[in-house]
Amino acid sequence: MSELIEANGLHFYVRDQGSGTPVLLLHGFPDTGDLWRNQVPALNEGGFRTVVPDMRGRGRSSKPSSVSEYRLSSIVRDVTGILDALGIQRAHVVGHDWSAAVAWLLAALAPERVDRLVAISVGAPGAGAKPTLEEFQKGWYRLLFLFEGTAEELIQRDDWYLFRLFLGGAKDTEAYVQTLSDPGALTPALNWYRANLPVQALLGRTGGPQLPMIKANTLGIWSTGDLYLTEEAMTRSEQKVQGRWRYERFAGSHWVPLDQPDRLNRLLVEFLS
């Protein structure tokens, strides 16, 4: 069943399927909830209820206009609001890309809402040291995305040439181009970067309070062909986890749920059970 749910003052398109222990599946950039289309049937068959929203600014969910409205603190409240609207007190939480960061923050700041945590591609906030040359090289696009207007123009120029190059052959490239071509769709997607990754963040100097330790049992996943994030950033996350920590390395691109759905599905059912 898919429905529009009101939470945190916005409307979210949410796919709610199956029964049993709830599993919240959260996507990143430039995806929508469709990222998890291969995981939902396997989890439902494994006895889980799956809750898959289009995140703020993406897909069929609300797209606030202000950059400041895309701060991760607001997006964490989106997630708790969606859970509240569905009457879910506690869930397993699986996040990829930007929403792995959301999942880490949710587990740190609202531990009573998170049973087990799965973070794909993005390591725990606050677990980093000074960035390596590899991290600088892989993160070049973050600087581009900060330039409002300029980034939008360059990304779309020549039939989205730069964007297609950036995606490195991702399976859903044409779907991303189609959804981000809708009027008013690209800027909200880029606002996640503008609200949360100022230039200072490149050196790991964003300030702010230290996050609490993660109490949930946690599974970290990284893929060897990831063009944007390093393995070290994920493996360092262990130092932020008070619960049991498990790390799994996959082959393939950044889009683990699409590249290796069978292995990921088996791993999720095993870990979340």
Give the gist of this structure:
The chain is an alpha/beta fold and 273 residues long. It has helices at 39-45, 72-85, 98-109, 133-138, 140-145, 150-167, 173-180, 186-196, 231-235, 256-259, 261-272; strands spanning 2-7, 10-17, 21-26, 48-53, 91-96, 114-120, 217-223, 245-250. It has a single domain, classed as Alpha/Beta hydrolase fold, catalytic domain (Rossmann fold, 3-Layer(aba) Sandwich).
Briefly note the CATH topology name.
Rossmann fold
Computed CA radius of gyration, to the nearest angstrom: 17 Å
On the 0 to 100 scale, the average pLDDT is 95
Q: What's the number of domains?
A: 1
Tell me roughly what share of residues is in helical segments. Answer: 25-40%
* Major β-sheet annotation: 8 strands, mixed
Number of helices: 11
Name of the CATH superfamily: Alpha/Beta hydrolase fold, catalytic domain
What's the CATH C level? Alpha Beta
